[in-house]
Design a protein that fits this description.
Order of helices and strands: EEHHHHEHHH
Number of helices: 7
Shape: globular
Helix content: 55-70%
Largest sheet: 3 strands, antiparallel
């Protein structure tokens, strides 16, 4: 599926229907909220709070929510102390980066659909935001490498089939964007 096209200036463009734009917006917002902010809002954590957290002896823990744990994974799975130390110094910036990528997608996405023109940097931000949305879906749906078999095995009346189809569509959007950037 070729949705995105490379532009002469190194960016990409795509035409999205109003339903596609609405769906993308509806999928990105929960990721932002999970990371600690809705669109256009900050985390509510002050610089002083962040400094106190860095100076604290407490080690941040892996998030209990499986989606958040996938979005903010441990750097050292076999060493909880090292993972906590690494998380202490990196989690805040990782959250902020992910929220920035999602906000870029929202800021460049016309609410009613239509032509979207992205610079190369904005397109890469879209890729990162789309990846986070797919991670969220993948964890919730317990998607494995056998995605096609999982989808085929579902009863056509199963309400999860729509979610699997959205997951597949997101993959196609992401793949189209990767291919356009590679041209």
């Amino acid at each position: 599926m070729e949705m995105f096209r490379r532009t002469r200036d190194g960016g990409v463009s795509v035409w999205l229907s109003s339903d596609e734009a609405m769906l993308l917006r509806a999928l990105v917002v929960p990721v932002m909220e999970m990371l600690g902010a809705g669109p256009g809002r900050g985390t509510g954590i002050s610089a002083i709070d962040e400094l106190e957290a860095l100076l604290s002896d407490e080690q941040p823990q892996t998030p209990q929510d499986p989606v958040l744990a996938r979005l903010l994974p441990d750097a050292y799975r076999d060493d909880p102390a090292a993972a906590g130390e690494f998380r202490k110094y990196t989690e805040s910036s990782l959250r902020e980066s992910k929220k920035y990528f999602a906000q870029t997608l929202l800021d460049t996405l016309p609410a009613s659909g239509g032509r979207v023109r992205l610079t190369g940097d904005q397109a890469r931000d879209w890729l990162r935001a789309l990846n986070d949305v797919r991670l969220m879906f993948g964890v919730r749906l317990e998607v494995t490498e056998d995605f096609e078999e999982q989808l085929t095995a579902l009863d056509p009346r199963d309400p999860k089939i729509t979610e699997f189809e959205v997951y597949g569509w997101l993959g196609a959007v992401q793949e189209s964007l990767v291919q356009a950037l590679a041209r």
